[in-house]
Amino acid sequence: MNDENPTFQQPAFAPEPQDEAPALSEVQDQHRADNQALATRVVPGAVATVSPNLFPILATKKYEGEWVVPESLNVSTFMGTAILDFTDATFTSPEVVIDLRLIMGTLKIFTPAGLTVIDDSNPIMGEVTTKNLGRPDPGMPKLVLRGMLVMSSVAIRGPKISLLDRINGKF
User: What is the pTM of this model?
Assistant: First the structure.
C-alpha cells in the first residue's frame, strides 16, 4: 500500500449536489398547505375509537392523544374526573355535542387552536371556565356543551401560549 500520495475519492452512494434550493415562496406555500390540512381535522365517516359514554365514579377517565371523536359524548360523573384532550383528536363531524351530568365532579377539556366552544350548560353551585381559546376558525369543528352540573366544575383550555409569544403580544 502506498501511503505517500493518498487520494480522496467521492463515495459511490453520495447524493448529487443540488443546483438550487427551493424558492422561499414554495416553502411558505407548502407550510400553508400543511397547516390547512391540519386545521381541517374533520373526517366524515371515520369510526370513533372511544366509547361515547364516560361515567367515572370516584375515579378519573381520560381521552387523550390521537383518538377519533364520536358525534356526541355523554359525560356523567359522581365525585370523579373526566379529561377530554382534543389537541390531537380527529373529528367525525363538524359539530360534537357533549351531554353533561356532573355531580361533585370535574370535566377538563383541552382544545386545539381555532376550535369553537359553545356553552349551553346549566351549572348549579358550580362553574364553567375558559382560558386561551383564541379566535374561532371556520374550518375547525365546534364543541357544544349541554346538560347540568351540580357542585361541579368544567375547565376549558386552549393551547398553551409560550413566554416568547406573551412578550411579543401574540395572545
Answer: 0.71
